[in-house]
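Lay summary

Proteins are chains of building blocks that fold into shapes. Our project writes down both the chain and a compact code for its shape. Here are two examples, one after the other.
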Amino acid sequence: MSASLWKIKLDCVWSGSTLRECATPDNSYTALILTCLDSVRLLNGSSLCSGRLEVKSNQSWSSVCEADFDQQDAEVVCRELGCGPPSVLQGALYGEVEALAWSKEFQCGGHESALLDCRSSGSARNSCSPGKAVGLTCSDPVRLVGGASRCSGTLEVNYMRQWSPVDVSDWSLKGAASVCAHLDCGSAVSVRRTKATGFYPLTVRSDCVKSGSALRTCTTFMSSSFMIKLNCTGKHIISIQIIFFMWIE
């Protein structure tokens, strides 16, 4: 008798849950063969795009000392994980660590596709000082394309390292405002669902978004025949408003 198969819900895995928590019994006759080339990970964060940084070398994981890591290194890590640019880089954000530290300083140019592709130098370290292990938060990989500016157009999310339009069935201006703010594009002016042409957008669970979770965390492989068009005010309008208020005072 063949072994039973399990179905893994990918949106559950991307939210940071374990495989066991995301597995359900399935009658499928197709099994997945997976080869992993993981070299970095973020632990104890709210998603795969945030947490304490660890690097894999010689089959063991090591933390990274804050003094040996900078903004360009962070850009490479976020890119390697399929996340957006780094938004927060600070030690002790995601708990203390007693594991061994990475032995050398990273010297990334910022263009590399993987952290271990970067040059490294320096003397070996045995541990980081308390509160000095790197904590990193990468931004949600979201963009607007096809509009008059970067602050308007079709909403796309980088999911599984590929940009795809998404559909949110029940989304108000208040919900869309978080995307505009994330893109540094002011507030939301309009949001509408339009018929998709030539491709099938992924589906974003509106209840997940309303709970405050990131768009990619709420994205599923369920396809839709609709996509989201979003217009934001743009940063320049916010600047004008600020100047106007200062003049009134």
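And here is the second example, written the same way.
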Amino acid sequence: MSKQEITFFWYRRDLRLEDNVGLFHALKSKYSVIPLFIFDDSILDCLPKNDARVSFIHESLSKINSQLQEIGSSLLVKKGKTLDVWKALLEEFDVKEVFFNKDYEPYAIARDTAICDVLEANKTISYTFKDQVIFEEKEITKADGLPYTVYTPFKNKWLEKYKLMFPVAEYDATDMFSNFYKYSFTFPSLAQIGFEESTIKVKSHNLKFIANYQDIRDFPALDKTSHLSPHLRFGTLSIRKLVNWAFLKNDVFLSELIWREFFMQILFSFPKVVTQNFKSAYDGIQWRNDEEDFKRWCTGTTGYPMVDAGMRQLNETGYMHNRVRMVVASFLCKHLLIQWQWGEAYFAEKLLDYDLSANVGNWQWAAGTGCDAAPYFRVFNPEIQQKKFDEKGIYIRKWIKEFDLGYGKPMVEHAMARDRAIATYKAGILK
């Protein structure tokens, strides 16, 4: 019996039906469309069984599946090595076309190249689309075609191009939903995937604070942030809808979204930054990399309340306020002289909004080793940061329950640590 001719739309970090570029184009196919998600063992095998991000992905997929069931369709969810899954699907179906949105991380690029080679060998046509950014790859470059490595000129060019397009087109595929493949696939439980429900949850995004974002964003006790970042990371929210809205509401908030694309383009253009300093001149720094000091930083027991509150918030919730992220990152790299890769890896394990390009970019910014980074001699004083941004200690007391019972002394004295850091950097920077 002949196999049914099918088009696949492959979900990755775009977990929504609304304003999804690749899905929009897939549904224009002359073949019925099966929406697919693959839990990739190459990624899952490195995660704890109660990983909160896997729980969130599963929850988001369940919502998509429920929406599809209302129109007589469903989501096909597979688990395994991605290449093996695709080979099995090509055996099971007569796959004519595969549509998916681009991912710009090194692992994803290599994976997608391998998948496209298999599809081509099967005479299956693959189509890729820009979806998670407004401008991708080489769309924002200097006059000579080279990538920007400083944020401000990148932002200026980004805005120049965006204003010519405003509003960026959105993709409503609702009137094509009848082209989804009519079949009820079994939706797996978390346990069937090999995971368990996490007690840490992703919060709903909230945009009501954006109008005065620039006035409140630095004060962690207010907790008046959008909680957008996990939703952007996994694509439960369209970047086009958000940017079109932000452009009219708040320039400072929009700038943060442009930073996101800046770091994505840096990662795409300079993939070495995943593990290496962007500025190779900093390769000679002699880091202390003391494991006991690192453990105290991880557990939030450094004796610096702002640092400790931030790390405890991260460990308990998967979130950390952006101002506090800068303080804790600077403390690790400058006060303790532990190289940024250690902190980046810990954040990768804990952050609900973990995004490789932003995490690497911001850690190198804090360490002074990245593009357009803070200068090496800029060393945040955690006590001054606390007085400026949590003067009444509201944020600190929320996360350090024992604070008023006689909190411990700082593990390292600030003035000494600052002098040591500057001297170490000076000695290590290659001429």
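What can we say about the second shape? The longest strand covers residues 32-40.
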